[in-house]
């Protein structure tokens, strides 16, 4: 039987800025429409950030999440995955504000503090749309993305145990797998868990395909292959090649304009759905099926959309 692949779609993120692509969804209406279209194209999981409606700045304000999440939930059965990473400039309290209120089925969780920089991108841009963008992008050269062991423990206890949320464990480096193993030993993580391996971010693992084999073998040794679902995230131009290799190796895949603004060489993606559809075509050529939201929920042991509760 053909193996089904879970497609995640990271719709807007907090990395790219409006100047970088006119197709990056930053208004509530655009985020909603692109998220729903991505789900219709085959994404079983929608990874969501919020932005300020007026100028597209990354936002942790629950009011801005309220502008997008209920509408997306009403229009699609896809799993809603809320960031707990926010952006490099947000405090942990800010990053947890909406997830703790909403209690989503899934939330992202970065597995270690790290340098996380996109500052070289600023060199290519001569004219910025909004005043906040240039200092935001250039400033990542001198920011540490904080996720200490105590931060991670707090998220696992308060959001995981307290709200029944399960996690997309974002691992940017080999050591992050060992951090994950530590919390598994502590009893704060239980299988089946979702390991998102991220390649190509400046400050994390490089996009070399050889790194994928190292990560896969290490995860198998630490966890046992039956204990986790593996997924691949390739940043920028490395997105489709790495995801294709990963799918052939048994991984799930993540696309979306948070991770890559392009559809092909020199061609901006006009929507998140464009990337989902392209990935779906590639998976079909590999004789792989696309997992439904129901299959994703079953494989990741999620609580299900009807169990989501909101505390007002």
From TrEMBL:
Domain of life, source organism: Bacteria
Full protein name: 3-keto-5-aminohexanoate cleavage protein
InterPro entries: Aldolase_TIM, BKACE
Keyword annotations of the record: Metal-binding, Transferase, Zinc
Lineage of the species this protein comes from: Bacteria, Pseudomonadati, Pseudomonadota, Alphaproteobacteria, Sphingomonadales
Pfam family, one: BKACE
Cofactors demanded by this protein: Zn(2+)
Keyword match Chloroplast: no
């Amino acid at each position: 039987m053909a193996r089904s692949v879970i497609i995640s779609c990271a719709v807007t993120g907090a990395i790219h800025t409006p100047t970088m692509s006119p197709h990056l969804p930053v208004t509530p209406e655009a985020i909603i429409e692109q998220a729903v279209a991505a789900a219709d194209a085959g994404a079983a999981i929608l990874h969501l950030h919020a932005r300020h409606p007026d100028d597209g700045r990354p936002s942790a304000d629950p009011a801005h999440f309220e502008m997008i999440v209920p509408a997306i939930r009403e229009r699609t059965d896809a799993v809603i995955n809320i960031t707990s990473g926010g952006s490099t400039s947000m405090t942990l309290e800010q990053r947890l504000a909406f997830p703790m209120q909403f209690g989503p089925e899934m939330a992202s969780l970065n597995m270690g503090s790290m340098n996380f920089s996109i500052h070289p991108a600023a060199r290519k841009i001569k004219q910025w749309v909004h005043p906040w963008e240039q200092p935001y992008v250039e400033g990542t050269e001198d920011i540490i993305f904080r996720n200490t062991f105590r931060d991670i423990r707090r998220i696992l206890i308060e959001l995981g145990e307290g709200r029944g949320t399960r996690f997309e464990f974002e691992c940017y480096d080999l050591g992050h797998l060992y951090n994950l193993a530590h919390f598994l030993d502590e009893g704060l993580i239980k299988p089946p868990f979702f390991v998102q391996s991220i390649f190509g971010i400046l400050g994390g693992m490089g996009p070399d395909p050889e790194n994928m084999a190292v990560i896969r073998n290490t995860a198998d040794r630490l966890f046992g292959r039956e204990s986790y679902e593996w997924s691949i995230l390739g940043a920028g131009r490395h997105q489709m090649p790495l995801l294709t290799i990963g799918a052939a190796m048994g991984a799930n895949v993540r696309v979306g304009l948070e991770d890559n603004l392009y559809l092909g060489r020199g061609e901006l993606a006009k929507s998140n759905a464009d990337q989902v559809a392209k990935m779906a075509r590639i998976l079909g050529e590999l004789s792989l099926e696309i997992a439904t939201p129901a299959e994703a929920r079953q494989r990741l042991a999620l609580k299900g959309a009807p169990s989501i509760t909101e505390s007002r």
